[in-house]
Design goal:
By secondary structure, this protein is mostly helical. It contains 14 helices and no strands. Helix 3 runs antiparallel to helix 5 and helix 9 packs antiparallel against helix 14. The longest helix has 28 residues. The radius of gyration is 19 Å and the shape is flat.
Length: 299
């Protein structure tokens, strides 16, 4: 199955294509959830932060490139992905795969050699989870794809924590779970507006399988669980008043956005509030993790 004819090919520098394979806009948020936990866990040196940032970018970029290789068949029929290097014909699938594996391998060496083996192992685990559990297995077979597969995006806090402490403990698990429960309402807000794309590609996203009404209901419940989870570390003394105030304000806005989508679920006017929720959720996670780091150092 192929999509409509592509627009005339545009000149794209090879270097720009390589960068686009890594999905830098997505990685920027992953780096926040990697580096902020380093400052929550301690006071890392700038060189350590730089190495973890570069290693994290290479590992996540490698996973994204391999994802594009595995999804090249469906990227061709989705409007938002048809201009990627493989479906547009600018790069061969083999070269994309080789690039992804190469930079991920470089990331493993960099993190293991200059940070510690646990940090490298956790980053590699996130790579394998994203490539094999989410992309290869869940994405095309279950509407729970983004729920379970979302764990891949929750590995960065563990990576950052292990880089400073050399271990994984309860506080780092909290950070993992926050990203895990943030992922469904974040991604389903996008999926609601991209149903035609996912339907054309045969990807069983929640709105297509459960329907819009149930998906929106699930988004609200995950948002409530997320907010409760963000407050839990305060009860155990992991964070203080500054983080608590930030979590309440940021979470309140998130809940208001989810409720706005729910109010419009029967009228069909949920497009604008769901787009707002998707965009805000990106800012929410970044600011929440920054609040964690600032809180620990203020205290």
């Amino acid at each position: 199955m192929t999509g409509a004819p592509l627009p005339p090919a545009r000149e794209t520098p090879f270097a720009a294509d390589l960068v686009s394979l890594t999905k830098p806009r997505i990685i920027s948020l992953l780096l926040v959830t990697t580096i902020a936990p380093m400052y929550v866990a301690g006071t890392p040196g700038w060189l350590s932060v730089l190495v973890v940032a570069v290693g994290g970018y290479l590992m996540a970029g490698g996973a994204n490139a391999v994802n594009m290789y595995l999804d090249s068949d469906i990227d061709d029929v989705m409007v938002r992905t048809r201009l990627r290097p493989i479906p547009s014909g600018r790069m061969s699938p083999r070269s994309v795969m080789a690039f992804g594996v190469a930079i991920a391998t470089a990331a493993v060496w960099l993190l293991a050699h200059f940070v510690n083996v646990l940090t490298a192992a956790l980053a590699l685990a996130g790579f394998y989870f994203y490539v094999f559990i989410y992309t290869r297995w869940l994405k095309r077979n279950s509407p729970q794809n983004i729920v379970i597969g979302g764990a891949a995006g929750a590995f960065p806090p563990l990576v950052g924590w292990a880089a400073v402490t050399g271990r994984v403990d309860l506080a780092s698990i909290y950070l993992f779970l926050i990203v895990f429960y943030w992922t469904p309402p974040h991604f389903w807000a996008l999926a609601l507006n991209k149903q035609r794309d996912y339907g054309n590609a045969g990807v069983p996203m929640a709105p297509l399988v459960w329907g819009e009404r149930e998906t929106i209901e699930q988004m609200l419940w995950y948002t409530i669980l997320l907010i409760a989870l963000t407050l839990l570390p305060v009860c155990f003394g992991v964070f203080g008043w500054l983080y608590l105030a930030s979590a309440l304000v940021l979470g309140g806005l998130f809940l208001r956005g989810a409720l706005a989508v729910r109010r419009e679920r029967d009228t069909g006017n949920w497009v604008r509030p769901s787009w707002w929720l998707y965009k805000y959720s990106l800012l929410y996670l970044a600011l929440l993790f920054l609040a964690m780091a600032v809180d620990r150092h203020v205290r």
